[in-house]
Amino acid sequence: GHLDALLRGLVLGKLGKAGHKATLEEARRRFKDHVEGKHILSADLRSPVYVTVLKHGDSSTLDTMLKLHKQADMQEEKNRIERVLGAISQPELIQKVLTFALSEEVRPQDTVSVIGGVAGGSKQGRKAAWKFVRDNWEELYNRYQGGFLISRLIKV
Predict the structure, then answer these.
(1) Closest by alpha carbon to 81, among 64, 96, 103?
(2) Burial of 111 (0-12, 13-18, 19+ CB in 10 A)
(3) Which of 24, 54, 55, 132 has the most crowded Cβ, counting Cβ within 10 A?
(4) How high is the mean pLDDT in each 10-residue block of the chain (156 residues)?
(5) What whole-number distance in Å separates Cα of residue 57 and Cα of residue 94?
């Protein structure tokens, strides 16, 4: 049922982020099959699989996720990817995600989700996101003109 699917995604995401070996191996296998078009992930498993492979991934994993984002034909999938990019854990890759947040690849109204994903991904991500917001305050403020998105950005 619907609630079981939600619970499954939540549990798998937590296990994957924690590094549970069997979950990580399965997530990597399913991600590879998804990227290669062998077996497309169901919508309810995409976020936990994406989070798991990103959390334990490298620059190649991030590049693959950014490629999936670029190729996505539905905004829902782009948003799903944008929300999980912050799971990446290497400092230089966190910076790459933050730079991506202000790129033309991300709709201005979705930039906050990318930055928020980084801030919520780890303690290191939170510090990097806060520095990024401070360093880019003028651009962010001008982009949102004091609207609700700027207050949401500050909250996250």
Answers:
(1) 64
(2) buried
(3) 54
(4) 91 94 97 95 94 96 97 95 95 97 94 94 93 94 84 85
(5) 12
